[in-house]
Each structure stands twice: as C-alpha cells, then as structure tokens.
Design goal:
Length: about 1000
C-alpha cells in the first residue's frame, strides 16, 4: 500500500469531531414540538421480488443479500436494507434518471433549478418549510438533508436520525410530495432563481472557465460538451412555470425513479412505505426516452498518434494568468452499457493494476528529478458519455514540452514491455489489503455510503457487490495477473478512436494548438528507468528505537475502559480496546508546541513542513522505501500542525500496529532529511500560489487567518519569493529540534490486543530518548486578534467582476477552562447561521453559501474566533455588514426564540447520539488529557452544554461575545474596484428576525 502524504488533519469544528455517546437522558426545557401523526399500520409489501432482484438481471455477480429489491406496477424500482450503522438512523435516496444531459437547449439549467424548487414548496410542505422541518426532526442542513444534480441524474438525500416509525412515515410522506408535486409557481421561481444564480456566480471564475473549456474539447460533438448542470443565465431567466412543469412531467416519472433506503429498521416496512406513498403515482403523458448523449469521434484526416493506437483529434491551449500550468490528454472511447458480470470485473481489476504500476513509475520519475511535479493516469467512465483514459501532468517549470515527453516516455515503456512479477505482486498486495480491510469491517458499513453506492451503480448501469464478493473475486483470479495480461490491458487503456489534449498556461503566447499537436505527434523513446526493481525493505531489518522501557505508572482515566500508561521519558499513552469495530485501529501522536514553535522569520517553513516533513522519510527509509515497506499493509502517516501541538495520525489494523508505531516513533528519534522532498514541496507551493488570487473564496482561504490574527506571519500563506528564500538546510534547522520537544501523548484505540500493544509501545515510544522541554519563548507566544477598526479591511481578487466576499469576526478565548462556554458558542453560531441564511439567501437572494463558525482552541488560552462569512455581489457587501450587525444586535437584545434553539440543538443531539460507537469520537474528546486532566471533567456536561439551553443564555452569550459594532469587518472585492459604501435600496428589512423562515437547501 502507498502511504499517502497529507499535509495535515483537516481542522474541523468541535461538533464535527465529537461523534460521542449519550449519557443518561437529561431534562430539557419545554420547546415547540413538531406535530407528527402516529405511525400507520401498514400491510405487508406486495412488490418485493426476492427471487428477481432487478439490479442483477443479466449478471452472474452474487446478489448482495443485505439488499431487498422491488418494483411497483407503475415502474418505480426500489432497494431496501436493514443497516444499524449509525444506530437509529435511516438513509433515504430518491434518484431521478435525469440531469443536465436531459435538457433541451432552451432548458439548460432546468434540472438544477427544479431541484431547488423541490425544496422550496411542495404538496405537504409550505413555502420555505422543508429545511426547518428536517431540522426539527434532527437532520442537519447540507450534511443530512441535501440534493445533487449531475449530468445524468438528480438525487435527493435524507439521513434521518432517531428514525422511529412515526418520523419515518412522516418523512416519506413529505418526500413523496416533494418529488411528485413540487410547487413550480411563478412566485417560487422568482424567489429561488436569485439563489440559483448566486450559486452559479460563486462557482464561476477561472476554475469554471477551465472546466467548461476542457469539457468542450474532450466531449466535442456530445451533449456533455456544453450541458453543465448550472445552465445558462439566459435560459434560467427565461424559465416559466409552464416550461418547468413540462420538464418535470417529462422526466419526473415513476419509471425514471429509484428509491433506496438503508437504515436501522425493518426493510419490509421501508418497502411498505414506498408502496403507500408512491404506488398511485402516474406519469403525465407518454414516456420519453433519454436523448442520445453522443460518442467521441475523430475528425476526418486525423493523424495516428505516436506510440498509441489512437487518432490525434483536436487540441486546445488556454491562458489563465492565475492558474498553474497543466496538461491533460484524454484517450476517448465510446461509453456502452457494460455486461456487469464477474469476468467484466476481473478485467477491471487487471486494468487497476496496470494503472497503479504506471502511476508508481510516474511518481518515481518525478522524485528522481523529472521535469514535472505531478502526473497521473486515470481511466474512468464519464457521465455515460465516454470511456476515457486521462493523463494529467503538472510541469515543474515553464518547459511543458519536456514534462509531456517525460510522461510519454514512461507510458511508452509500459506499452512496450510487460511489467515484472514483482511490480504486479506489489500492486496486488495493496489491492488485497484494501479489500480485506473492507471485508473485515463489513458490519460497520455506514448506511449513507451503502445507499450512495447503490445509487451510483444505478447511474452507471452496474451492480453492487458485497465485501465478500470483492475479496473472493480478487483472490480467485491471482493466476490471471500475468505480465502478459497486464501488458495487454495497459495497451487497451491507451486505445481509442480519438485522443484530445488540453494545455493550460499562465503566459499568453507560450504555445499554440499546433505546438501541442506537434509535441504529441513526436516520436518518444521508452524510458524504463522508473521501473521499480529494488527489493522491498523489511520492518524486521529496521534499527531499534532504543532500549525497550515499561511504563512507570498506569491508571484508568475514568472514561470508558481507557487506560493511561506513563513512561519515564515523558511519553504518555492512552490505550483502549474496542470490540465493535473489527479491523479498525486509530493511532494518534501529539507532541511539541504546534504553531507556537515558530518565530516570525521561520514562518515559511511551516507550509514546507506540512508537505515535506513526512515525505523526507524516517531512518533508512526515503519516500520510495516507505512506499515499498508499506506494500500489503494498512499504514498511514498524516501530519498536522495545530494550535498548540503537532500530530501524526493513521488508520491501521491489529496485525500492522507494531510497524505503525515504529514509523511514528522513528520519525521523532530517527528523522531523515531529504533535499529532494523539500525542493519538491517548494515547487508545489510556488506553482499553486497565484491560483489563490482567482476568486474571493481562495483569497479568504489564503488570507483570512492572517488578517484576523493581527497579520501574524505564522498564519500567512508564504509568497513564492519567501518560499524561494528557504533552503533544505534551513528546513532541517527549524524542524529537527521541534521533533525532540515536549511531552508525547500517543492514543491507540480500536480492535487491538492490549498486551501486544503495550509490548509494541515499550519497543517504540517507551524507548524514545528523554523528551526535551518546550522553549520558554514558544510557550510565551500568543495568538492576538487584530484591532477592530472603523473601516473594513479590504482584500482583492483577480476573478470575475460580479464576485465578492464579506466577513465579520469577533475575538473569543481559548483554553480548557472555557470548554463549556465554547460549546454554547457553537450553538449560538448555528442560530446566527440560520438567521444569516434566511436573510441573505432566502430574502435577498444575495448569497448561496453564508457560513458561521465558532472556534475555541484548547491547547492554548487564546485564538478563538466567531466568524460569519458570505460570498455575494460587490454591491451587496454593505448589505452583508448591515445584516450581520442587525443579527448580532437582535440576539444580544432579544435572544432567539425556542423554535430557533430546537432547530439547532435537536440536530446536535442526534449527531451525538448516533455517533455513540465510534472510537475516534472518544479519541477526539480525551486527547490532551494526559497533559490537561481537566478535559475529562468537562465531559460530564457535554450533552447539557450542547443541547440544554435557553433564549436567555443565548442572549447573554451574544451580548458578551458578539457585541454589535465590535467585530472586525473584512471584504474581498475585484482588483481595481472600490468598496461599495451604501446598502442597495430594496423593500423589507433583511436583517430582521423571522422565526419561521429558513433556507430551502
């Protein structure tokens, strides 16, 4: 298995990390209760067809017996399944077999617009009540309630927590009304269209232009070339009730609908509910077949490709000054409905091995000094329009021709000569460990993923298979993975009627389409220098960390059965064996001082460390050797820089745990310093910097932390010039001492053998040298909020003239003593978020994605922030500031009403409850407790802090932490423009509180 080097664990709000078990139920204040009729008594379903599962017709793939399949007389198909992960949750997916490719030219964008309107108003849901209703039922907006429109389908998604029969019955009724009878009225179109256009605007810019241009090239002559789900302004603005109803009647029909339900309940009841609410649905008018999506074809007279069994078709060169240089080559074949049988899947597995071998060689070529930093070969089926093999290349510098030739040379070698048995065995071992892991964890497959997988299979006209089937097919065909077979499949990957190529460059005049054509037609010599030939190293041969040492103290921490082991070298371990997640082990190591460790002049090395520290290797193992030693094992190596600590993390399994511990301990005691890894990280950082100018969201991502944290260099994204001034020697000088400093906390949770784990800890972390103290200068560094000023801080982007972003932020605190307040502030932030969404999206149509968050570091005693953000038009920036100011003022003066609180606390309560069994939950909660034991005491109030509150408490917090007029305002506007100063004149008061309003989606 390849160890994936990821810069850091993603920072998430505390709620996203909690996923914890509920203690005994607490008393709660009275709140408005959603009126839900009692569950109805349903007859046994008559439409189930256990002997004729429709998904498997014509296939010899064994039926995944967990799924029950049925068909209604009207043509609607469904699949239902009992699944208890997460507990008490039911996942519902309703798939309509129509997306943007089903639109006529005058209807472009209609599929997506109807998706929005479906949430606005429908038979059983009044205008604007869909999302508030789901929130009262415990479903979170976006995470649990959503919809997606793609070129080929529209899928409505609901993950319903605490899905007792009455709630599930009511939800199915509401969903049936949404799908069958949305209110596609003139008034609703007028209200929803600005939101759809705002979404389109926020996703515009260079990235969207690149996506559109590449689609127009690769799928020329096909619907996919121009039919993006977002549509066109002109066709959207011309939408009428009559036009949308015609589209809805044409495609929203029972025979075009598949319903999938997977969850903690009786699948026969799921089927009966589908019958109850969808059996009497009849399509309007005659059935309309899907349009012909077209197929890729070479232009007349297209020349043969050098080294490929394909014709060279069209090429395109696109100039985008702020995007990094890149090349995409697509070998295109017509898509056809596969005969999804076992033999077909055997072929896919050989294809997978062939691709992995090429991609590993491409990585080795780059590491050895190639003229590109990234290259990848990837075969995929695209929107039932093409079966394509894509070659994507990011050149190291200006010489795109050299990068293209380097990659073509590696591919030419793969097409010319078969791989070695050793290369095949290595890739097979990686696939095998993934499939075996999937099989071992089969009882913990989450319902949402199972439902999504089945919907995805329907979309591509294939089946789903159980983990047992995956593993047995792979292991039953080992003799089929011969060098000759892999060579044959490799050659087929690069065969097709037409190949098209796209060059993206930041420099005008750098290349022409003819230059790109000539480069692709030039003969290329095969380069076999990147074939993996060295014998893989063995963990048995790795140097010892030191003399094994047993813990000097141990005790139960009083949470679950977690035991703390203390070692004399200032290492502390938290160990917990669980039996409900077979095959799953998480290891997390926390050490050092995080962002506090860096002096201002060392700031550029922070970003380099995120990319190069792990990639530099450990002990005798460089990046290539790490890949090799990990083959056939489940190992990982994520690295994170947090407020007050550094962290390593990995998902592993019991049989690989000792080796995983050695890797982490060796990184602390035997770090390797690889000049090439640093130079590669520098190149990637410099290549991507200009792309952070392309739109307001990118500028916010790059600069907001820096602006809010008093322009502290530690939180700035280093410029190319600053990166250029760094050196491998400087990198080592900064990072080497940091690996030695501070106590180490290691957490090992999951399906482990405690005795074996303790023995492995003794050989690894117990054997580490005595830890050095964190320097006083690092401990003294604080995070300081920027002084609030009268005028907004103005930043500039290089993107579209109709794009802007605005934010307002208030300083909070930090530290463990404020944990209870930090949880309450998260509740307040979500109340603020609902109001902002209601004001800016629903009432003003000004922004599609307003967002509010509250952060509170626990490793340090400062740095928390309450931040509200939105993307919108430049002229609407003053409107955002006025709305945010009004919300803050009203919350501080009047507080929220009880229904607003329920709409936030009920989803949080359900999130906590349904995440009861995940060991990572408890890891997130108890991490840091070996240094700060008071974290454990704060667990006692976890549920109360998040779910038991009052309007008066929220009002008190708002007055204290987000006072009106005391936030720092930030605006991102187009370069060359001035900040608007006045709020646009319009009716109504967008900032005023409306208790019952909410977003449509």
């Amino acid at each position: 298995m390849t160890i994936h080097f990821r810069a850091a664990r993603l920072f998430s709000p505390v709620l996203a990390l909690l996923v914890v078990a509920a203690p005994a139920a607490q008393a709660r204040d009275e709140a408005p209760v959603l009126s839900i009729p009692a569950a109805s008594k349903l007859p046994a379903p008559a439409s189930l067809k256990p002997g004729d599962p429709w998904l498997y017709r014509g296939s010899d793939i064994p039926h995944d017996e967990g799924w029950l399949f049925g068909e209604l007389p009207n043509g609607l198909r469904y699949a239902v399944r009992n699944n208890r992960v997460p507990g008490e949750q039911v996942s519902i997916r309703i798939r309509i077999d129509a997306g943007s490719l089903n639109e006529e030219e005058s209807e472009r964008g209609y599929a997506h617009l109807i998706e929005h309107l479906t949430f606005r108003e429908s038979k059983y849901l009044a205008n604007g009540q869909a999302i508030p209703t789901w929130q009262r039922l415990g479903a979170r907006l976006g995470a649990d309630t959503n919809a997606v429109t793609s070129p080929t389908q529209t899928v409505y998604q609901l993950d319903l927590p605490n899905a007792v029969d009455a709630k599930l019955d009511e939800s199915m009724k509401l969903l049936s009304g949404m799908i069958r009878e949305p209110a596609l009225s003139t008034d609703n179109i007028a209200a929803e269209l600005p939101i759809v256009l705002a979404e389109k605007r926020e996703n515009g810019g260079p990235g969207k232009r690149l996506a559109d241009a590449s689609s127009e090239l690769f799928y020329k002559g096909q619907l996919l070339a121009t039919h993006s789900p977002v549509g066109l302004d002109a066709t959207l603005q011309a939408a009428t009730s009559a036009k949308l109803k015609r589209f809805h009647q044409r495609w929203y029909r029972p025979e075009n609908t598949v319903i999938v339900i997977a969850g903690d309940g009786d699948p026969h009841r799921f089927a009966a509910l589908i019958e109850q609410y969808f059996s009497d649905w009849k399509g309007v008018g005659k059935h309309v077949p899907a349009p012909d999506f077209g197929k890729p074809q070479a232009p007349k007279g297209a020349p043969d490709m050098a080294g490929l069994a394909s014709k060279l078709g069209e090429t395109r060169v696109m100039v985008e000054p702020d995007l990094p240089r890149g090349i995409s080559v697509a070998v295109l074949r017509p898509w056809g409905k596969p005969i999804d049988n076992i033999e077909y899947n055997r072929g896919l597995m050989i294809d997978r091995v062939a691709q992995q071998i090429i991609n590993r060689r491409l990585v080795e070529r780059a590491r050895a000094g190639g003229s590109y930093v990234l290259a990848d070969v990837n075969q995929r089926e695209v929107s039932r329009s093409a079966n394509a093999t894509f070659i994507d290349i990011t050149p190291l510098g200006d010489d795109w021709k050299a990068a293209l030739q380097d990659v073509r040379a590696v591919i030419a070698d793969a097409l010319e000569s078969p791989p070695s048995e050793e290369e095949i065995a290595r890739e097979l071992s990686e696939i095998d460990v993934n499939f075996a892991d999937y099989y071992e964890q089969r009882i913990n497959q989450p319902g949402p993923r199972l439902a999504d997988d089945l919907v995805g299979a329907v979309d591509i006209r294939e089946t789903v298979a159980s983990p047992e089937t995956f593993l047995s097919v792979l292991r039953g065909m080992r003799d089929r993975f011969t060098p000759e077979a892999v060579l044959e499949h490799t050659r087929k990957l690069f065969q097709g009627p037409v190949t098209r190529a796209f060059l993206l460059t930041p420099k005008a005049g750098e290349a022409t389409e003819e230059d790109l054509r000539k480069a692709l037609l030039e003969p290329v010599d095969a380069d076999n220098g990147s074939r993996v030939t060295a014998k893989a190293p063995s963990f048995a041969d790795m140097p010892a960390i030191g003399a094994p040492a047993q813990p000097v103290a141990r005790h139960q921490i009083g949470v679950r059965e977690i035991e703390q082991l203390d070692y004399a070298n200032d290492v502390h371990a938290l160990v917990w064996r669980t039996d409900n997640e077979p095959g799953r082990v998480t290891v997390r190591v926390r050490f050092g001082s995080g962002y506090r460790a860096f002096a201002p002049e060392e700031a550029p090395y922070i970003k380099l460390g995120q990319a190069a520290l792990v990639a530099s290797g450990v002990g005798p193992l460089g990046a290539t050797e790490l890949d090799a030693i990990a083959a056939g094992r489940k190992l990982g190596f994520d690295f994170g820089i947090e407020d007050g600590t550094f962290s390593f993390e990995a998902q592993t399994r019991r049989e690989d745990l000792a080796d995983q511990l050695w890797l982490f301990a060796a990184k602390l005691s035997q770090p390797r310093w690889d000049e090439r890894a640093v130079e590669r990280a520098k190149a990637l950082s410099q290549l991507g910097y200009d792309s952070l100018n392309t739109d307001p969201a990118s500028v916010i991502s790059r600069d907001l932390d820096w602006v809010l944290n008093n322009r502290d260099p530690r939180f700035a994204t280093p410029t190319p010039a600053q990166i250029n001034d760094t050196t491998p020697e400087g990198f080592r000088k900064v990072w080497e001492p940091l690996l030695k400093q501070g106590p180490v906390e290691i957490l090992v949770f999951g399906d482990i053998d405690p005795a074996e784990t303790e023995a492995a800890l003794a050989r690894t972390f117990g054997a580490l040298p005595q830890r050095e103290p964190i320097p006083a200068a690092a401990l003294a560094r604080k995070v300081t909020f920027s002084p609030v000023q009268a005028e907004p801080v103005v930043l500039y982007h290089h993107g579209e003239g109709d794009q802007a972003a605005a934010g307002v932020a208030w300083p909070l605190g930090g530290g463990v003593k404020g944990l209870r307040v930090s949880r309450e502030l998260e509740v307040l932030s979500q109340i603020f978020n609902n109001r902002l969404l209601d004001a800016l999206r629903e009432k003003a149509g000004a922004s599609y994605t307003p967002y509010v968050s509250s952060s509170w570091p626990t490793d340090i005693d400062s740095g928390g922030q309450f931040v509200a953000l939105a993307q919108l038009k430049p002229e609407m920036v003053p409107e955002f500031f006025a709305v945010a100011d009004n919300i803050a003022a009203d919350l501080a003066k009047n507080g929220p009403d009880q229904d607003e609180i329920v709409r936030v606390t009920e989803p949080i309560l359900q999130l906590l409850n349904r995440s009861l069994t995940a060991h990572v939950t408890w890891m997130n909660l108890v991490e840091g407790s070996t240094v700060q034991p008071e974290r454990l005491a704060a667990l006692r109030t976890l549920f109360d802090d998040y779910t038991v509150t009052t309007p008066e408490r929220m009002k008190e917090l708002a007055a204290q932490y987000i006072p009106q007029g005391k936030g720092l305002r930030v605006a991102v506007i187009p370069k060359g423009t001035e900040l608007a100063r006045s709020v646009p004149v319009k009716g109504g008061a967008a900032g005023q509180h409306a208790a019952s309003g909410s977003a449509s989606r």
